[in-house]
Write a structure and sequence with these properties.
binds N6-methyladenosine-5'-monophosphate, Metal_Hydrolase, 8-stranded parallel sheet, alpha/beta, TIM Barrel, 346 residues, nucleotide metabolism
């Protein structure tokens, strides 16, 4: 089976997908229609053309944080947020994704509170529990938050976790890596961890070995990106040794890193160093809407660029299940992927 057929057909798990960054062009247009019908003013059509950051775009990582505002304008009401969640879930399902951990930052808008934001996404995922794709929510804390705001999000997440233990699995730190410092978020994250939530951190998306080391020593359950950890990519021997010692699984976002210029090109992506060092890696999309990609496309790129054979790619898909936050789903997802592997002689 060639990769164009294998990658979409193979059951896959998505563990790093920001809701508002995942909105496809068709979802954005549907949200516009929905908002117009419900009398909510949002974003002009002209802005929608600026939403995607493709190959060769002059915008870099810092610029991309402006782009999310376009999506945020479209998901300010419970109705539009629920619609965005449902459509995104279905797109991942159509791409062969059998389990997803969507992540999103609760926002207070003129139309809903932060609590309503988390409740809306949680209710929507719960109401889609009958779909073949299984889904969970990771609540995001943005690095541009004050300590007080971060504590409020953490407490809110813990409270909502009691209400939606079947949906909410974790908390994460994301946002512009050039803003804020990790140590300020440690108390909020620790509180969430003590309440039973899993932790994932955007780590080393830009060069900051001191912070990378603090993050790794915090022992999160997973990290996102991990670009600047190996000494060849702006990390130090100490950061690399810490990752190797702790074996923290890394959510890999190839196209995101290339399009934001965190990585020079696919060929020089740090996936190779992590894979060769046997660090657990999970292929993810990050923001499939903004970076015009899909989970199967990321698997295909990975195979093409790093010369993986179909059995090696299938092994990546099946190993990824070990790092899923919802323990109760692991067995059935693993079976689904292994059945596919056996049936196709991979
Ligand atoms: C760091 C990112 C990101 O939460 O509104 N986000 N944070 N690095 C990245 N690499 C490109 N991509 C997305 O989804 C959008 C938010 O996710 C975070 C940013 O905080 C962005 O505003 P939600 O659903």
């Amino acid at each position: 089976m060639d990769f164009n057929k294998l990658c979409p057909a193979m059951p896959k798990v998505e563990l790093h997908a920001h809701l508002n960054g995942s909105l496809s062009r068709s979802t954005l247009l549907e949200l516009k229609r929905f908002n117009a019908d419900t009398g909510v003013t949002d974003t002009s059509d002209a802005f929608l053309d600026e939403f995607q950051i493709g190959a060769g775009d002059t915008r870099n990582l810092s610029d991309c944080f402006q782009v999310f505002n376009i999506a945020h304008r479209l998901t300010r009401t419970p109705g539009s947020l629920a619609l965005a969640t449902t459509l995104t879930l279905k797109e991942f399902q159509d791409d062969g994704c059998c389990y997803i951990e969507l992540r999103s930052t609760p926002k207070e808008t003129p139309f809903m509170t932060s609590r309503q934001y988390i409740e809306t996404v949680s209710e929507t995922l719960r109401s889609n529990a009958h779909l073949p794709i299984k889904s969970r929510l990771i609540v995001s804390i943005n690095r541009n938050s004050s300590i007080k705001e971060a504590e409020a999000i953490s407490e809110l997440t813990i409270s909502c976790y009691k209400q939606y233990p079947d949906v909410i699995v974790g908390i994460e730190l994301s946002g512009d890596p050039n803003i804020g410092q990790f140590e300020d978020f440690v108390p909020s994250l620790t509180k969430a961890r003590c309440a039973g939530l899993k932790i994932t951190l955007h780590c080393g998306e830009v060069c900051n070995p001191k912070e990378v080391l603090e993050m790794l020593r915090f022992r999160p359950d997973r990290i996102g990106h991990g670009v600047c950890i190996h000494p060849n990519f702006g990390g130090t021997q100490e950061t690399w040794d810490a990752l190797c010692k702790f074996q923290i699984p890394v959510e890999i976002c190839l196209t995101s890193n290339v399009n934001t210029k965190s990585t020079l090109d696919y060929n020089s992506h740090h996936f190779k160093e992590l894979y060769n060092a046997n660090i657990p890696v999970i292929i993810c999309t990050d923001d499939k809407g903004v970076f015009s990609t899909s989970l199967s496309q990321e698997y295909r790129i990975c195979a093409d660029v790093f010369g993986l054979q179909p059995p090696q790619l299938a092994k990546l898909a099946s190993n990824a299940v070990d790092y899923v936050f919802a323990d109760e789903e692991k067995k059935s997802i693993k079976e689904k992927i292994l059945n596919f592997i056996n049936k196709n002689g991979l």
